[in-house]
Write a structure and sequence with these properties.
Helix content: 40-55%
Number of strands: 7
CATH class: Alpha Beta
Number of helices: 8
CATH architecture: 3-Layer(aba) Sandwich
Number of domains: 1
InterPro entries: ThsB__TIR-like_domain, ThsB_TIR-like_sf
Domain Thoeris protein ThsB TIR-like: 19-113
Mean pLDDT: 88
Protein name: Thoeris protein ThsB TIR-like domain-containing protein
CATH topology: Rossmann fold
Largest sheet: 5 strands, parallel
Strand content: 15-25%
Low-confidence stretches: none
Shape: globular
Amino acid sequence: MNLQEILKSLEKPVKHKIFVSYHHKLDQAYYDAFSKQFHDTHEAIHDASLDNEIDSDDTEYVLRRIREEYITGTSCTIVLIGAETYQRKYIDWEIKATLDKEHALLGIYLPSAPRNGVNITVPIRLADNVRSGYAVFTSWENATASPASLDKYISEAKGKYKSLIDNSRDKKKRNG
């Protein structure tokens, strides 16, 4: 074995640093399963329930904190989409902060995601970016099939043109 091969064998695999946005009350079990499955291959950062973490009514301050403390340093935001995800203002704000930073955006719909016929109800800002071609959208089953599967979706999201970002909507003012 030559020196280059020895050094390569000593390298640790790079962990993708991702931010995971989800409805804490209803989808915590999915986040826990996701985190457990991918903890060796991905460094997952979640928002620790912003309702409790950031005590302020100043939306610009909250958005700045989201950008600085949660989104900065990550390359992709993953939105876990469950039964009430589309109604949550902080999830909208986390998506907005992600798009402000021009980071990748991946929506993963959970088995509990509400359906309207064949369509899945998702946060509107995420829907805007799926329509524009910027955000990647897949099922829980596909994304969690293996670390390689999740990596494929993250890589696809990271490869999207920034010009496709649609962050034109006003911020969601309240839940519901």
